[in-house]
Design brief:
By secondary structure, the protein is α/β, with parallel strands linked by helices. The protein has seven helices and seven strands. Helix content is 35%, strand content 14%.
Length: 237
Amino acid sequence: MRVSHSRPPAIGDDKGEPSKGHASSDAPVIERDQQPATLDVCRRCALWHDATQGVPGAGPKHAPIMLVGEQPGDQEDREGKPFVGPAGRLLDDALQEAGVGRKDVYITNAVKHFKWTPRGKRRMHKTPAQREIEACEYWLAKELESVAPHVIVAMGVTALKAVLEEKSVRLGDALGKTLEHGGRVIVATYHPSFALRAPDAETRDSAYAAIVAALRQAGEIAARDRKRKPTRINRHA
């Protein structure tokens, strides 16, 4: 696939209308030690205050592959689903090219609320701070325990920090390598939005190829681990 040379609009409401969330100077309630049952009541960091809603992960309950991105974008924030915007469509193309089925993938983000800054009537993406990544580790840990994936694909440096539980990591140092943390295999690659918004066609095409390669590698690892898993025998049959 050759990524389009035209750069898409920056993250924001496609119609140029203000979305439901709104930036406010009011000090939001923060409960850093909170253990919420649902995202709707999460106050572990301040991002809940200006987001429309929390965006949980989506996919099969026990998918062998977990894809972790940075945070929801404007469209994801409005719809309440991960990777439904332009980056999500590019990710779908990459999954298909890599030969990885959506039935084998659980998709989520390191941070579950959209962090943004206003620019006119649009909401522009803002990179999550380390304290926000750490606050949302509560939710990522729950997803890892529940899904129990064979392999994690960390898409972008924010995701890599979250899955490695490290404050200082460089994405470039991890590209093309297989990492391990907490008994799980981790493959690092670019975030799909980088393959859309890189300043030149060569970089966009290279980033897309790297994403496809990482997904293909994850698929191979998951398939290999699945073959190693012993078949359970029903002794009551």
